[in-house]
Amino acid sequence: MPDITFRTLGVPYPLVEALAADGKTDAFPIQVDTLPDTLAGRDVLGRGKTGSGKTLAFAIPMVSRLGTRLAGGGRRPGRPLGLVLAPTRELATQINAVLEPLAAAYGLRTTTIFGGVSQNRQVTALKAGVDIIVACPGRLEDLMKQKFVTLDAVEITVLDEADHMADLGFLPGVTRIMNATPADGQRLLFSATLDNGVDKLVTRFLHSPKLHEVDEANSPVAAMTHHVFGTADAETKKQLIETLASGTGRRILFMRTKHHAKKLALQLTAAGIPAVDLHGNLSQPQRDRNLAAFGAGDVRVLVATDVAARGVHVDDVELVVHVDPPMEHKAYLHRSGRTARAGSEGDVVTLVLPSQEKDLAQLMRKAGIQAATQRVTPNSDAVVALVGERAQYVTPAPRDAQRQQQGGGGRSTGANAQRKRANRDGQGVGSGAPVRSGQRSDRSGRPARSSSARSGSASGRSGAAQVTRGGSSSFYSTSTGGSSQASGASAPSGNPRTGGRRAGRPAGAGR
Hints:
This protein is of the alpha/beta class.
């Protein structure tokens, strides 16, 4: 089948130009199937595997229709015209990144709304007036209750990854939000499956929707190659993980728990393989920093929990490794979908111990994946061929240097211990003298830290790998001989007490 361009599908010229500027001229199958209906204003139910191009499939018609005929004239404070609901912060951020350049072609404004961060920026944007909001349900409902946003002017509503919102228990909130939008508005729903109540959303809110599905044979995900590597014991598995992480390309390693994701990222960094983590114990700024380091190529390994299984799109992820096999087949498919995206090829490796083989076989059958288990060691031909060229060893900085660079964190040593002693004695930090009148202090009477100290402390908490760029200092220095030994692990990341969100709510809840 010949390639079909966005121009031939009837996409308006300003958007064709914006897409071409980003290197996008040919449409993917789900875009080819849905755009004629969505551009015409019809409700659409789209089912496609992860990485099949769903974001552009709804972003193009949303901007096209809102950019050419605004409801009730110009933008109004707190009354958006377009709404995209997404289950996680990461997905909301990525959707907005796709929408922004398209919206700019028509002078439309977009913003994100999710939890884990102060609502002040979001409220300011709403008061200034935005045309399209990309939101997580929890925070959006909060702002609706506070009267900062009203949805009675929304012309187009998109539910993205509806099945994942169902898995996270968001459907009651989604239902309330949908009820707040005009009943005659256009609704687009994209989901990999229609279970767990998604079918009820379709029946209740979509008007005679056009169903479009992209099967695996036509999907870019067909370019994904699956491998199952069996290891004899935990020690061999540990060595195999390090080998698989040592290549020159980007790779994502998935773990079941936040603790193990953090621990593995530190272990890899200590072994000369800079890595960052992504999980629910990180605040939104920490997640953003770590994702930015991974996306920019400052680090080539991301160790993540299932919080990254959806919504994290980074170009050219060549390998996904299921270090811990997932609990169910949908998680396997969504984790694996971080590679082989947008028509690129990619490999997926699942590591399995003897005691896990039976459960994994059942999971793979449900996922529709056929891959025979290969007994391997780190030096096996199959492993060596998959890893390819090894990246240069990167020596971690000594622990003390890391603490100084990161501005504290970890155990109460050095400045932290001094600060605690000063607080206990009622004295200023570092001077041994009482606080002078007029000196800035916090509510407890302690002198306030400078902005640079606060910034350094935040860096210390993030655990994000920093690499020498433009001659600046860094957490790591490149070993010229390739034989240097790791002198320490990077400081831990995240705050296990707060977890970057309120207790009792699922990750990505948007509160």
